[in-house]
């Protein structure tokens, strides 16, 4: 292993990177052809529009190099850059750490609540408040153990760091608690997306099981929704169902399956990618009050091979995805690219792939349609994606068998 240093542009910190030899990555197949070559799980399904599925690669796909900046970490779920260039990460088993200059995890930060880490649960997303440099406020989500089961909960707290690389969460307060409580271990979501106006978008899952997933269509249930709340946890005043009797006023959109990828574009609009079953991962730009179909309208098939519901892929009452994948990429983590490292990736989303074991890059045109898709192989399950202050892309990877994670820096091969 080689020790070296790289200055993170625009930050006060020179972060020492633990590097593995840089390897140039190339994408296959040939430029101009769709990057996905495997057969679809539902070959008889037709996209509603040609640009909705298997977009071509660009004429000159970007060439990349990769470096391991941290390894041997506990199994992580999310990361966020602090203003000084260090990384704040969540460990699934329930610990919050700062990754220091040496690529090592500092002491566990005190004050993190108990989590239910069974199955897909645990300590999940973390995000800095827009005014973090003044307030020190962060937000984090987790599978909260409750009487009768668990549920996705979001809390805010003041992060107070110490010189030893650890710290404490002070004034931790629950600002959102998904209801109803359910005794399961799947489909918690979840991503926290702060908006510049101080509000938050919260994504959750529909808890997977047959008895719960139907509630993605019910306005009285917190399963399978995107929520829009204030920093204090109150519904946004003009949310679409504030005046609807029996509806949860925090709901922004409905009919989602399990959203583990979400980010704002440069216009401040929310986009997300949600898990399908066997096929049917969807890129959506959810709008207030709209229904995105699950489980009544969906691409792909059940894990069993059966049709999902009645096998319907379009309805006048639900929205079509902007784009979908079959086979799945298994999306987790997502970032809007802004930086000088990859000028060809302006107007793109960088998405983590658990099944595709790398990054998925979707290029958007002026009409918000997908023009191109690229794949950057990392040979590891990608759980989260962030753009660093140096313009490079940082991917949190996981090795579930070993129970460890690494953080990979992806830069231009040029």
Description of the molecule:
The two termini are 23 Å apart. The strands form seven sheets. This protein has a four-stranded antiparallel β-sheet, with no helix packed on it. By secondary structure, it is an all-beta fold. The chain is built from two helices and 25 strands. The protein has a single domain, classed as TolB, C-terminal domain (Neuraminidase), CATH 2.120.10. 2% of the residues lie in helices and 39% in strands.
The CATH level-2 architecture is identified as 6 Propeller
CATH topology: Neuraminidase
Q: Which structural class matches the secondary elements?
A: mainly beta
Q: Give the overall silhouette.
A: globular
At the first level of CATH, the class is Mainly Beta
Number of helices: 2
What's the end-to-end separation, in Å?
Answer: 23 Å
CATH superfamily: TolB, C-terminal domain
Mean pLDDT: 93
- What is the topology, as strand order, of the major beta sheet? 3-25-24-23
For the largest beta-sheet, the strand count, sense and barrel status come to: 4 strands, antiparallel
Q: Level of helix content? A: under 10%
Instruction: List the uncertain runs.
Output: 1-27
């Amino acid at each position: 292993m080689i020790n070296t240093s790289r200055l993170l542009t625009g930050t006060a910190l020179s972060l020492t990177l633990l590097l593995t030899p840089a390897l140039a990555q190339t994408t296959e197949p040939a430029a101009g052809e769709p990057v996905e070559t495997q057969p679809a799980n539902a070959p008889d399904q037709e996209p509603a529009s040609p640009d909705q599925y298997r977009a071509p690669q660009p004429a000159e796909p970007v060439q990349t190099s990769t470096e391991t900046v941290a390894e041997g970490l506990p199994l992580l779920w999310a990361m966020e850059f602090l203003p000084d260039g260090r990384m704040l990460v969540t460990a699934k088993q329930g610990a919050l750490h700062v990754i220091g200059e040496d690529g090592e995890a500092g002491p566990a930060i005190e004050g993190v609540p108990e989590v239910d880490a069974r199955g897909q649960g645990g300590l999940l997303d973390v995000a800095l408040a827009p005014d973090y440099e003044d307030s020190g406020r962060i937000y984090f989500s987790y599978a909260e153990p409750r009487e009768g089961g668990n549920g996705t909960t979001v809390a805010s707290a003041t992060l107070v760091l110490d010189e030893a690389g650890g710290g404490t969460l002070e004034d931790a307060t629950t600002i959102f608690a998904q209801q109803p409580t359910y005794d399961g271990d799947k489909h918690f979501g979840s991503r926290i997306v702060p908006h510049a106006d101080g509000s938050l978008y919260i994504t959750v899952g529909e808890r997977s099981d047959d008895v719960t997933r139907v509630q993605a269509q019910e306005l009285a249930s917190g399963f399978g929704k995107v929520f829009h709340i204030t920093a204090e946890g109150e519904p946004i005043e003009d949310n679409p169902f504030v005046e609807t009797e029996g509806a949860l006023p925090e709901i922004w959109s409905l009919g989602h399956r399990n959203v583990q990828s979400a980010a704002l574009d440069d216009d401040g609009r929310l986009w997300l990618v949600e898990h399908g079953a066997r096929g049917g991962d969807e890129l959506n730009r959810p709008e207030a009050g709209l229904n995105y179909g699950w489980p009544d309208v969906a691409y792909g098939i059940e894990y069993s091979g059966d049709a999902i519901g009645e096998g319907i892929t379009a309805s006048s009452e639900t929205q079509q995805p902007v784009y979908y994948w079959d086979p799945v990429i298994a999306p987790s983590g997502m970032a809007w690219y802004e930086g000088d490292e990859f000028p060809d990736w302006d107007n793109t989303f960088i998405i983590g792939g658990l099944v595709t074991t790398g990054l998925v890059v979707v290029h958007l045109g002026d009409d918000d349609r997908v023009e191109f898709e690229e794949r950057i192989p990392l040979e590891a399950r990608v759980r989260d994606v962030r753009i660093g202050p140096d313009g490079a892309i940082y991917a949190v990877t996981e090795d579930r068998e070993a129970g460890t994670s690494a953080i990979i820096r992806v830069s231009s091969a040029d």
